[in-house]
Structure formats: structure tokens, C-alpha cells
Amino acid sequence: MAEYASEKGVKVQTVAGDPPAPFEGQVWYNSSTGSHRVNKGALVSAWATGGALNTGRQKTATAGTQTAALTFGGNLGVTNYTQTESYNGTSWTEVNDLGTGRYSGGAAGISTAALYFGGAYPFTGATESWNGTNWTEVNDLNTGRYGGGSAGTSTAALYFGGDNPPDSDASTELWNGTNWTEVNNMTFGHIYFGSNGTQTSALGYGGNPNYSQTESWNGSNWTEVNDLNTAAGRQAGAGADNTSALAFGGIHPTVSPPISAFTESWNGTNWTEVNDMNTGRFYLSGTGIQTSALAVGGSPAPINSSTEEFSETGGNQSVASS
Amino acid sequence: MAHKTYQYCVAENWGKGFINSFESATIGFRSFPGNIWRVPANNKDANLWINKVLGTPKTLVEAQAIVDAVITPLQTTWDNDNVEGETSEQKIERLGARPADITLEE
Lengths: 322, 106
Prior knowledge:
The structure holds 2 protein chains of 2 kinds. Chain A is mostly beta strands. Chain A has 2 domains: 2-39, no CATH class; 45-312, Neuraminidase, CATH 2.120.10.80. Helices cover 2% and strands 41% of the residues of chain A. In chain A, the strands form 9 sheets. A 4-stranded mixed β-sheet of chain A has the order 1-2-3-32, with no helix packed on it. In chain A, strands 4-31-30-29 form a 4-stranded antiparallel β-sheet, with no helix packed on it. Chain B has 4 helices and 4 strands, in the order βαββαβαα. The longest helix of chain B has 21 residues, at 60-80. Chain B is elongated, with a radius of gyration of 17 Å. The mean pLDDT of chain B is 91. Chain A binds chain B through residues 44-52, 58, 77-78, 90-91, 251, 257-258, 261, 275-276, 278-280, 283, 299-303, 306-307, 309, 311, 313, and chain B through 13-25, 28-31, 33, 70, 74, 94-97, 99-100, 102.
């Protein structure tokens, strides 16, 4: 404090929260969070191109962060892929394959400890666990299905919604590291929708053919919350929990062009449109958090191998303690 | 003479660094089949980006021809890929939706 005052001529102001309109470079102490904060200029959120996949495909599942991710499975045409690729923030490296090639399953975990569950075709409840080197088959879902939403870690995961033909499925299953257990259903039966979060705090949004509904999971029940601004299906999502999320891509049949590059950000209450992806795509997968997300593959050809990275710069940020 | 809103170029997305966050936020990209990229016309940042990626400028007509040359064979392949007894919904689930025509804007 004394150093700051002697250098800047003023003391660091204490604010219960963040000041309403800080100027660039302003520093304050946020008494609510107990952290020093700084304004780093106008908040800019944008997508940049990321490293290209070695095997271009759609409907993969992805776990991890923007700079340490794992993508697995997927399909193109009638080919189901077993391929698994690891991302270091710059390039993708092929690692050991899945036991069963399939697409549109759920993903949980990080790049060194992941879980892949469900998928198609044929519709399956197969679950595989990644230990950083190999996949191992573990206990199946109770209801085999594909296109559901997923959240959590490799030892505490959640799979919700999806399709178990002929009908979409609203069921929710919880993974405890050994077995799947059925818990309370979603309000709607969503398929091919965006999702993110943890086993106790998750969010599901949009879905085929063209939904805008958003549902929030508190560890026990699903509650419908505010809709996306633009209804879409086959999109992806990222985010830490049910209070922060990013929805991106998909197909919105009522908007031209129908292949979506739209990106929306969730603050726990409402969705806000932010900058579009550089390339519209659907059947993509996503991982990361609201302010640092990764979009992987998708369709239409030839964008199947391309990836994009979302980041936010500027705005109010916490200052690391020295 | 009509005022051009957009300009087009061909450039191959090499991955990381092809479009950075600043360029994405300030330019506003749209990509099309055939490595066609649409950026604003008469825009300094867009022109700098085309130079950076060694993009080859294309007229609207040239860009449209490149897009069509990719889309038309995909549509033909989709149309000819049929399984006896399969419904249209099942075909879409198997192959994805039929590739749509794309019309570029001036």
C-alpha cells in the first residue's frame, strides 16, 4: 500500500465489489473477494485460430482446458473414429486410441484424467477412462444414448439428456468413479446441445432442432432459467459451472446463414452476445471456461480439422499477490 | 458503380496464429469452402491480415466460382448416396444435412 501511494500519490481505494466505471490502469481492493483488482482497458472477447487436428472430424468429445485438452472419438460419414489427440495450446499430438470408436458421447475431466461415455452408432452406454496414457473400459451408463450434455471430472461426472431412439431422453446420470446412478431428469429432452460445469453445478442450453431453453443443475434438480438469445442446435459449450458459460456455433435454421458462428456468454442470469467465431460450424465440441474456451472440429467440410480459441482480454482482473 | 462492402481472398488456414484475437475482434471474418475468406473492403486491418496470410485476392465472381466448385460435387455425392428403404430423416442422420448452396455478397 505504502509503495503504491508513494509511487502514484494516492492510496488504493477499498470497494465492496468493483467500482462502477473504473479507468484503465485503476487499482482497487475488492473487500468482497479480498483481492486487489485492476482495470486493463476495454474488455475484448474474440476467437483466434488454434492448432489443426491431425484427423479432421465432427462430433468429437473434448475434455480439459484451452491450453491442455484431449479430444477423442467422432465421425465423418460412416466412419467412427477411435482417435485421441492431445493439445498443448499450440499443436495436437496423436496419443493412444479409444477401445471403441464412436461419436457424440459425453466428456469429463482434464487432459491427463478424462472420461468418455455413451455415443453412437450403435447407441451405447459404454464408458472409458483415460489415465493420461491409455483408455480403460469401465462400467456402462444405465441408458445407452448419444448427443447428451456432460460435466464434471473423471471421478465425478454428469451425463444428461441425449437421444435414445426413437425418443429424446431427459434422464440424468451421475458417475462416482465406479458406477453410474440415475438421478432427477431434465425438464426437457435435449439432444445435441451445449453444456458445461461440474457434477454439482451444471448448465445445458439449446439443442436440436432449434431450442433456446437453458436448464441449470444444482446437484439435485434441474431448473429452467433464461433462454439463449438465438435458438440453435448442434452447438458446443464451455464453462466452470452454472454461473458462467459460453455457447458457440451450431445451426440456427431461422437465421441466415444457418450455420452459426454466434457466441453467447452466460453470467449466471442472462445470455449476452459476444464476438462471433471466425468460422461458423456445427457438430463441434468445446472445453475450457467462459473466458478461455476451445472449439474443436465440426462440420461442414472442409473445416473438420480446424480449431478456435476464445479469450477475453482487458476489463477488471485480479492482481496476483506478491 | 456499386459500393463494395466485402473483399474476398484465398488463404489456407495453417492453424495457430492464422487469425489472432485482435484481428478477429477488429476485422470480422467469415470463411467459406475452398479456403475463401471474406473480410471488410477498404479496411486497413483487413488488408494487413491478407498480406500476413499471403492471401490471394479474388473478385466476387471468382470467389463464388471457387465456392461452387467445392459445394456442387458434395451435393452430387450426397444425392447419389442412398440406402434402400432409408427415410430422409435417417439419411440426414447418416450423412448430415445436404450441403447447402452458398451465395456470396458483394
